[in-house]
């Protein structure tokens, strides 16, 4: 199953890796010796122990048989699969999501995609289903839909979402999906706690072109910011860096159309989808 250069942060994968290392060292085996005994390569054993590969059920069963563990590794592997959808989230996003639920204000800018809090289920499927197995995709979609409830709950946060017109025009899926998505933006923009505005395509260079980001405000805690690039997420808590994002957001909002003009643009693009 999946291998990568950086270790997975998911606790279940980390636990499996630690357990394997502990059992191997307790029995005095090197990676090469264990690999030869079980019929794997030393590189594979090293990848699993470094939490850079997701072990298969067969591999877990072989470990249980070899070390006589009464199913320890198979149970841990099952836990990995049950929580695998969390392991593919960008580093920093899990903590961000926890903080997002506590925020009383959210400000965000999106360059190329409509953000998760505003996505329809069909739009989500076009994105999440692109490179995930069906079970993982379903879990990710379910969690994202649940996460959206913060905008409609009792005492919801006040949110200001700005996006580039490119996010409206990028045809992530077919016309029906895009029409539904843009109609959803218009509906969400009618809520008292939601403000959506658009930076038009004819705007020349502006600071938002450097990438998407979000700022979370709290009643009794300092602001934090979050940004992603190439699948890597960063939760920023240093006050000076967070302030830089706040200044950037205020600046790019000056480049956006007013809310009513933005609604007219969203309507226009929606009609272009037929």
From TrEMBL:
It holds the Pfam family DUF5753. CDD domains: HTH_XRE. It comes from the Bacteria. SMART domains: HTH_XRE. Residues 19-73 form the HTH cro/C1-type domain. InterPro entries: Cro/C1-type_HTH, DUF5753, Lambda_DNA-bd_dom_sf. This is Helix-turn-helix transcriptional regulator.
């Amino acid at each position: 199953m999946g291998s990568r250069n950086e270790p997975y942060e998911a606790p279940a994968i980390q636990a499996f890796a630690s357990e394997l290392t502990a059992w191997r060292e307790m029995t005095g085996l090197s990676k090469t010796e264990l690999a030869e005994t079980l019929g794997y390569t030393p590189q594979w054993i090293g990848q699993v122990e470094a939490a850079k590969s997701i072990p298969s059920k067969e591999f877990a069963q072989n470990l249980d048989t070899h070390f006589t563990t009464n199913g320890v590794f198979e149970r841990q592997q099952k836990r990995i699969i049950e929580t695998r959808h969390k392991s593919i989230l960008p580093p920093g996003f899990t903590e961000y999501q926890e903080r997002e639920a506590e925020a009383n204000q959210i400000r965000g800018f999106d360059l190329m995609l409509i953000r998760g809090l505003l996505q329809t289920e069909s739009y989500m499927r076009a994105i999440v289903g692109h490179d995930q197995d069906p079970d993982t995709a379903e879990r990710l979609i379910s969690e994202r839909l649940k996460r959206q409830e913060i905008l409609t709950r009792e005492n919801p946060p006040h949110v200001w979402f700005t996006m580039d017109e490119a996010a409206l025009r990028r045809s992530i899926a077919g016309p029906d999906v895009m029409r539904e998505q843009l109609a959803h933006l218009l509906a969400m923009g009618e809520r008292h706690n939601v403000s959506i505005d658009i930076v038009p395509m004819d705007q020349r260079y502006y600071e938002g072109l450097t990438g998407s980001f979000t700022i979370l405000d709290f009643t009794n805690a300092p602001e934090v910011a979050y940004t992603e690039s190439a699948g890597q997420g960063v939760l920023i808590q240093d006050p000076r860096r967070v302030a830089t994002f706040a200044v950037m957001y205020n600046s790019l909002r000056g480049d956006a159309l007013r809310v009513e003009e933005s609604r007219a643009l969203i309507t226009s693009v929606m009609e272009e989808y037929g």
